[in-house]
Design goal:
alpha/beta, Rossmann fold, 7 strands, Wzc-like_C, ATP-binding, Transcriptional regulator, XRE family, Bact_polysacc_biosynth/exp, P-loop_NTPase
């Protein structure tokens, strides 16, 4: 028993050390984070920090003791989905024993490049089109410590076919199982305009966060979005004022 406990403790220490040594090519300055509207511990906007820490806690409660794959979508385009994804990823990464991975699956309006601090040659669509490409070739460093990013890629046509492919299934499984301390956040297209794509993505993820742009959608639109996702998959709604 003592040996087993020692092994577990050793494995955790090794994981913590790996996370701490993750290569950070360039860290965003506070000014850059403010420009991107991303939280940081000493940020002037303490309310945003509090809100996303609370959201992080609520999402953790849906998968106690293990990592997860969470899709984030908005009721309508430009509803604040990327804002929520980026800040939730940053909130998770505030814990030095955890990492987060943002996957840009919004092929219609990709945005993850704004987080990446290196050149990007390939992304998700390139990976899905090439059986010889490994996941590690499309994961990039961000300007936020312990946050990694997978961009949408070059050829973003044929989104529905790619998202429903067996390679996409295997891709998400590998992301989740490769590192137990990594939490995957999927930036998905708006459910109001791309219901087929979001249904596919929702079925592949553990659960879904729905972003509701405050004062910009009707109750009927919200209900339609919830129906498209499925209530069993829905972990919560985030009302966005940004």
């Amino acid at each position: 028993m003592e040996q087993k406990v020692a092994n577990i403790a050793g494995a955790k220490a090794s994981s913590d050390a790996r996370i701490e040594k993750m290569s950070e090519i360039h860290r965003f300055s506070h000014a850059e984070l403010d420009s991107l509207k991303i939280l940081y511990p000493s940020g002037a906007n303490d309310l945003r920090l509090k809100v996303f820490r609370d959201l992080r806690t609520r999402v953790y409660a849906s998968a106690p003791g293990k990592n997860f794959t969470c899709m984030v979508t908005s009721v309508v385009p430009d509803g604040g989905c990327t804002y929520v994804v980026n800040n939730l990823a940053a909130a998770i990464a505030l814990d030095k024993t955890r990492t987060s991975l943002v996957v840009d699956c919004n092929f219609y309006a990709p945005s993850a490049d704004s987080l990446i601090v290196t050149d990007t040659d390939v992304g998700l669509t390139d990976y899905l089109d090439s059986a010889d490409m490994g996941v590690e070739s499309i994961v990039y460093a961000s300007g936020i410590p312990r946050v990694r990013v997978i961009p949408a890629g070059g050829n973003t046509e044929g989104a529905t076919e790619r998202l429903s492919s067996m390679r996409m299934h295997a891709f998400l499984d590998e992301l989740k199982t490769r590192y137990s301390d990594r939490y995957i956040l999927i930036d998905a297209p708006a459910v109001g305009e791309y219901a087929a794509d979001t249904r596919i993505m929702a079925s592949l993820c553990d659960f879904v966060l729905l972003v509701v742009p405050y004062g910009k959608v009707t109750e009927a639109q919200i209900r339609s979005a919830v129906d498209a996702i499925g209530e069993k998959r829905l972990v919560g709604m985030v009302f966005n004022h940004m």
